[in-house]
Design brief:
Oligomer: single chain
Strand content: under 5%
Helix content: over 70%
Number of helices: 2
Amino acid sequence: MNVIREALSQWNWYLDGWIIVAGILCSVATALLGNFLVLRKMSMLGD
């Protein structure tokens, strides 16, 4: 358990937190758009 605590103590929440938030927002946006295109049969999977 000390290894995890040591790793989290060195975590830079101000910088790394924004990177994680940006990644989550990008993945949610592309997932919603991809789901919409697949359901509308506009996904162009064969191209």
